[in-house]
Amino acid sequence: MSSVKAVLSTGFQSEGELVKVGSVPYPKINDDQILIKAKSFAVNPTDWKHLTFAEADYIVGSDVSGVVEEVGSKVEGFTKGDVVSSFIRGNVSSAKGAFTEYVIAEQNSTIKYANGSKFSNEGLKPGSYPTSLIDTYEGASSVTLGLCTVALSFVNLGIKFGDESNSTKSILIWSGSTATGVLAIQVAKLVFGLKVITTASPKNHDFLKSLGADAVFDYHDTDVSKQIRDFAGDSIAYALDTISSEYSFQHVYDSTANSSHVAIDNLLGLQPLQIKTDENRKVSYSTTLAYLIWGQDIDLMGTIFKSSTQLVENYNDLFVKILPSYISKLKHSNLRVLNPGLESASEALELLRQNKVSGEKVVFSLN
Ligand SMILES: NC(=O)c1ccc[n+]([C@@H]2O[C@H](COP(=O)([O-])OP(=O)(O)OC[C@H]3O[C@@H](n4cnc5c(N)ncnc54)[C@H](OP(=O)(O)O)[C@@H]3O)[C@@H](O)[C@H]2O)c1
């Protein structure tokens, strides 16, 4: 096979299609990488955001599931035939991206499924599917970018695995029905034993409680921060703002005002200078960028985000050593399955871009 089909950027110039289906050379892995024969794909906001300024012919996509086709000579823990899902840095080059028939993947952003041999080779029919344990290629494709993000965020927040005091502490997850929030709720509860307080539109409250959230508040309520303060008292030690607008960041800050110290993480490079703060409060701030898990600094629109050996080590300690034993207990989000075929990437990306997705992940299979 000399070439494979792939979803490619068009070099979008403010109108027209974001993507097209084309072909790229059959990919070659290096000694540290894994080649995945793709089965299913999921879209993420980062995909459409990058596509609004990407050059033409970059391979699109960040989330894939499938079967290991080839393993680099230095890779440990994966063999040909394993069922896996992986988070890929797509949308920025003609060499790597998730939405293609054969995908180059890195070890520390790839999950192996012990129950993978039971995944059906028949893709799910187009339609809506409720949250469930991860037992399909579609479900597997929907979780990896999110889990890598949550793992790095919890490292940045300084949450300690196995700390007995976790059961007395709460984490506030702002907007728990986001793809990130759905996974953060479960990891906070199942892996770290924290109490989970979250926000969402009312129609998603029962869904988030079913994932382990102890309390869910409606972020549309004008007094939502007061409601959270009254409920949580001084228990909130950590907060993750999955929306990361100035509005949500301010609300996270205000909701945690009773805490003697709180660590607040956001996902879009927000700084405390962008909100109203009280100099008497003890707050630590961090920003998570999942692309840093591979050890390279990242330039995003002129802002440099720094990685480090220590950051990657701390992330690997959680994602590579601890999380795998919890994968069989984690649920994927509700799924919206589109028609099979790479052609569905365009519809999937537009659904996200037009903010038409609530409490679900949009996925499509290869065929
Ligand atoms: N830095 C990183 O590494 C990283 C990684 C992953 C994601 N992100 C970023 O994080 C953000 C979330 O991504 P995602 O994929 O997790 O989200 P998503 O699944 O696309 O988010 C959809 C959810 O957003 C909620 N929502 C929409 N507008 C809102 C608002 N004004 N206030 C509160 N909630 C609102 C909706 O909740 P309801 O339906 O309940 O109202 C909906 O369920 C994006 O900006 C993404 O680019 C960054």
Automatic annotation (TrEMBL):
InterPro entries: ADH-like_C, ADH-like_N, ER, GroES-like_sf, NAD(P)-bd_dom_sf, Trans-enoyl_RdTase-like
One Pfam family this sequence matches: ADH_N
UniProt-recorded Gene Ontology molecular function terms: oxidoreductase activity, acting on NAD(P)H
Location of the Enoyl reductase (ER) domain: 16-364
SUPFAM superfamilies attached to this UniProt entry: GroES-like, NAD(P)-binding Rossmann-fold domains
Stated name of the protein: Enoyl reductase (ER) domain-containing protein
Organism: Cerrena zonata
